[in-house]
Amino acid sequence: MKGYKIGSFLLVILLAIALVGCAGLTNPNPQDSQDKKNNLKEEQNIGSPLKVSFIDVGQADAALIQIPNGKNIVIDAGKNNDGEFLIKYLEDQGIKEIHILIGTHPHEDHIGGMDKVIENFKIGQVIMPKVTHNTRTFEDVLLAVQEKGLKIKEGKAGVQLDLGLPAEGLPPVSAEILAPMSGKYEDLNNYSIVLRLVYGANAFLFTGDAEDVSEKEMLASGVNLKADVLKVGHHGSNSSTTKDFLTAVDPKHAIISVGKDNSYGHPTEKVLKRLREKGAVIYRTDQAGTITVTSDGSTLTFALTSP
């Protein structure tokens, strides 16, 4: 983590700019030497299956969603030192524009590379929960948002993402934020944006670092949590993925974004056992590298890249 803290006065000013919005147009993206190649890749993606890549960023989170109508969503951006890696990864996928960029919560292992992503790509919208964090990492994200002339939209339960019209002849796609459901938590993890993405008959649930407190709120609300693919909360920590939550989600596949031989003991054996008991096939980035899931609206296909 970028170690020093920023002054509270500067943070207030930055938040006023970022969360309320500043005047001016979005700055144009810097030119890329691979513009023609990337344009071709983006054109080729239109009408392709929906693709979700759980990017191997070690003990951190980052995911790319490529929608068949050509729109792209990035959820989280790894740690501070992952910025350049993510830029290259996204460029290699032909990404020139990120239509929706989500920071699930302001911990360094989720938004560390977000400033670099904002600086290097055309960004349509930034979504984050309404909570601050007095760190240089958080300041860097706010400064990047300000310099790009963007606004931050509050991510909270009930927000529907605007994904545009479906590609011709393909199933509809939708995405709804299910959490956070409250405006005040003791732990930053429970501010995590939880997103449910639906494409045809397939559903994905992205949970950030949401813990049992947030899981219980979602269960109590009666919101539909069912998903074929679950991005397991908090890297497989005991704080998340409770039995009742798993019962409601009923995942066929579980993705754990985690670093090899990490000092936290993630994923814990308790969580792995719960997932096995539910019959979920477990995929881990520390073992499989980046995990890419494609969907045609009914069938899921998994591709693994060795770390």
TrEMBL record:
SMART domains found in the cross-reference section: Lactamase_B
Metallo-beta-lactamase domain mapped to chain residues: 59-260
Domain of life: Bacteria
Pfam families documented for this protein: Lactamase_B
GO MF term set: hydrolase activity
PROSITE patterns in the cross-refs: PROKAR_LIPOPROTEIN
Keywords of the record: Hydrolase
InterPro entries given in the database record: ComA-like_MBL, Competence_DNA_uptake, Metallo-B-lactamas, RibonucZ/Hydroxyglut_hydro
Protein name according to UniProt: Putative hydrolase (Metallo-beta-lactamase superfamily)
Species per Swiss-Prot/TrEMBL record: Desulfitobacterium dehalogenans (strain ATCC 51507 / DSM 9161 / JW/IU-DC1)
Lineage of the species this protein comes from: Bacteria, Bacillati, Bacillota, Clostridia, Eubacteriales
